[in-house]
Structure prediction request, 139 residues.
Amino acid sequence: MAGRVTFTMIKPDAVRNGHIGNILKMIGDAGFKIRAMKYTRMTADQAGQFYEVHKERPFYGELVDFMSSGPIVAAILEKDNAVEAFRTLIGATNPAQAAEGTIRKAYATSIGENAVHGSDSDENALIEGDFHFSRLERF
Ligand code: ATP
Ligand code: MG
Prediction:
């Protein structure tokens, strides 16, 4: 059975471009409840660890530099079938292929700087939530 939580980050590009409020509105309007949230910045080591599954990919260095380049908003979100529902809301990795009405269509600038992260499985949603939040930071 699909889980009820997913994990997201509003990435440094969207924070720099002033889109935090609009993105949180889209998330709330889509019916997601916020279970945990923080404004924080990952070190390069932390970003490297977070995206470790991609370490053999050619864009890994660029991804780590970008994700540690400024503050992010990290959050645990809850909704039925959360992982899939949130991936639908954010749209394709490449904004050129993102559907109308998605967060990436509205706010991503490139395949690398694509405004938001969304977990790709229930298992990774739990791992990624645990990466950023302690038990006491969840409500
Ligand atoms: P995320 O995991 O951030 O939600 P995603 O699941 O849509 O994104 P992944 O394949 O997991 O996409 O890639 C992780 C991130 O790596 C992408 O969001 C993007 O920032 C970056 N990335 C992916 N492919 C490329 C590429 N070809 N060139 C540059 N950066 C890329
Ligand atoms: Mg991914």
